[in-house]
Design a protein that fits this description.
With 260 residues, the chain is mainly beta. It has a single domain, classed as Beta Barrel (Porin). The protein is 12% helix and 42% strand. The strands form two sheets. Strands 3, 4, 5, 6, 7, 8, 9, 10, 11, 12 and 13 form an eleven-stranded antiparallel β-sheet that branches. It has a two-stranded antiparallel ribbon with strand order 1-2. A hairpin with a 2-residue loop joins strand 1 and strand 2. The chain is globular.
């Protein structure tokens, strides 16, 4: 495993995951947040300048192992004002996830201002550190992120609001983009708003979908999350996303919920 300077260390066209990527369900599998951010990074690199990712979906095809990863991204539908891209996340011998994204060219601010909503949460500097779920191994994704509780708790079932910030870069030697910071955090909506004890149940998301009206400002993402679960084991997690300026996006996840 690569030295833990970031979530990933580049090696040519490959990315070596570090122990910071480890998720809560399997010591040998990654949390989906860092891979989502890695794929988002590749989609952003397709350009052109001035385009902003407005909708991003990651399909998690199988557990993402702690193995070297490569991202293959391409523009499927180019355009002057909108663009559609697809990407695949692969190991040396299989595809582990695929993604799609719509990007929209941001225009000059000539439209009437319609506020998305101001932040009505205490900021991260006024929110206490949150106690996180202990998966039984460390380091992991849970320790690579900084958590501050607004309401609710990892350890108490129910809706929760939490400020989240990356402690380490996504890729060694690079400053994370606003999109990368959002995608690294967005996959945690189901974890912070779990409705059954994490020690007894799995909440595994099959996908992550994020809609963004504007880029994140600053380093902190606040997820205001709620999870709903059908008795037959199918769940839905939904999050509104805030920064210290206000509302900027929403996320959702379809869940497989089952006893451990």
């Amino acid at each position: 495993m690569a030295t833990a300077r970031a979530f990933y260390v580049p090696d040519g066209t490959w990315f070596l995951p570090t122990e910071w990527t480890r998720g809560p369900w399997d010591e040998g599998a990654q949390h989906a947040g860092p891979p989502a951010a890695l794929v988002g990074r590749a989609i952003e690199s397709l350009g052109p300048e001035g385009f902003q990712v407005a909708r991003f979906t990651l399909e998690v095809l199988r557990p993402i192992p702690l193995a070297p990863l490569q991202v293959q991204a391409s523009v499927v539908r180019p355009g002057r004002r909108v663009q559609f891209a697809e990407a695949q996340l692969v190991t040396a011998d299989m595809e582990v996830a695929r993604a799609s994204a719509w990007s929209i060219r941001a225009s000059d601010p000539t439209l009437p201002e319609v506020a998305l909503g101001p932040t009505d949460f205490p900021g991260p500097d006024r929110s206490p550190p949150a106690e996180t779920f202990a998966p039984g191994w460390d380091p992991s994704y849970l320790t690579a992120m900084e958590w501050r509780a607004v309401r609710g708790s990892f350890l108490e079932p129910g809706p929760a609001s939490m400020w989240i910030r990356m402690r380490v870069p996504l890729v060694d030697g690079e400053e994370p983009s606003p999109l990368g910071r959002v995608l690294a955090a967005a996959d945690s909506g189901n974890g912070i708003s779990n409705v059954l004890p994490l020690g007894r149940y799995l909440f595994i998301n099959t996908e992550l979908t994020v809609h963004l009206a504007r880029p994140l400002e600053g380093e902190w993402v606040c997820l205001d999350a709620v999870t709903r679960v059908d008795p037959r084991g199918i769940g839905l997690a939904e999050s509104t996303m805030w920064d210290e300026r206000g509302l900027f996006g929403r996320g959702s996840q379809s869940l497989l919920v089952a006893p451990r």
